[in-house]
Amino acid sequence: MRRKDLKILAINFPEEMQRSLSAWFSGIHNFLWLDVTTDLSSALNTAVQDIVLFRYNKTDDRHRAMLESLNESSSNLPIIILPDRETLVDDVISYLTGYTGSNCDFFRHCNELLVHRSRSQTVAAMYWLKLRYWEHTIGIYGPDLAERLCRQLSSRLSSHVNEHCVLANVEDNQFALFKADCVDHENARLFARTLAKSILAPISVDHLQFRIPVDVGVSIYPDDGETIAWLIANASAAQSSNRNIWKGNCFYFSREIAETATRQASLRESLRYAIQNEALVLLYQPVVDLQSGDLTGVEALVRWNHPELGMLLPEDFIPLAQESGLIMELGRWVLRQACAQLKDWHEAGYASLSVAVNVSAVEFDQAQWVSAISKILIETGIAPEFLELDIAESTLMRHAETSPQIVRSLKNLGVKVVMDNFEGGYSSLRYIKHFLVDILKIDRSMTHDMMTDTDSSIIISSLIRLAKSMDLPIQAVGVETKEQFDCLLHSGCYRAQGHLFSKPIFAQDVMQLLTQRKTGTLA
Fold this sequence. Notes:
By secondary structure, the chain is α/β, with parallel strands linked by helices. The radius of gyration is 26 Å and the shape is globular. Mean pLDDT is 83; it is low at 243-247.
């Protein structure tokens, strides 16, 4: 599911639809129901809303007047205009969950089973299964093979489905299964282990054998929720929790997980406030030319200076931003701040300095993303060739056929495209020229292991030779020791960043570093 705990202003929904949607999302989202005759200003002042759902009739003057009032009163509030039709409830469910088509049918079928189950004494359970290392699999073997692998795994899970079960492949690497005929809680637990073992058994595709690890989150009706939406939310929360309750990577929803989910919801709201009020900070890690020792660029790294939790690293809040839909707003803030700072450095006399900004998979998939970058470049006035966009190898490989079109649009702007977290998978190697990237960034894990793992050292040397043959600069990340420095330089890698040179630092410290290097006062 998408973000939970939304405050939804729903306008012009008849009582029957209100009852239906309230039943679907009980405990998940909060609805405020209005009709077109209600005073809008008092409703908006009652509580801060996240979105507006408007059952709209363009021929009705009252509807047009309400829409105009909404636009005037809440310019930043997303307003979803919904046509009045028989499938309107399905439209709302699809929008709020992100599930369409067969997944919406999954919701409906689960509801039917739940209603039938309420007449018996059996236990019902929701199972949320997530395949591990899926992006890694796509990066190495390509999306076509991954899709066939997913179909076979789906077929395996289908073998456990009967008239009391329903299964859906809700995302590329995630499945939901609802079982309405568990004998008791222990039976529900045993079934979770059965599902995990079914996925873990070896599977062959194209003469290759795979063992795909899986995490299973479980919620049980009615203890963990009395609606399908609530059961899915809690099973998903259990799956993504860090505490392993059962063996075999099965996770059981608990009060502790519920409390964690509540804290996460609070943290999401705090993050929204932090982005809107510029309570985030950017640090910059220098990029060094290994031959000359010159500082040639920086990578912008966002941090959140939380008033209670202190300085939070990206891994503490970027997943929240992605889950809650805030990642686009966060990404644009980072890009705008980094470009504005680069402009200041250029005007201070360091006109050759570049800045690298990380791009999330969510941003890369958005139709308006490239135009947003263009707008920020114009606003800040920096030359596009000094902006590097770091896009993970897995993100580029996820849509290997369409990614080149997006990359081409970026290059038309004049910016440089960096393939980040590069590991040299066979599928990626085939697509490097196709993607038209400007720089390859060796994955941090390979740099870390290069002095102790012969395979990593050999792979890095091969990647450097490959990059040279294609006239592509290659950059190492996470350089921490002189031995790594010497090995990279000897192999022909001339760009690097890491704690050996500098940890991430504030903008004023970068300026001091630049000044010291220019005056020769830094050894």
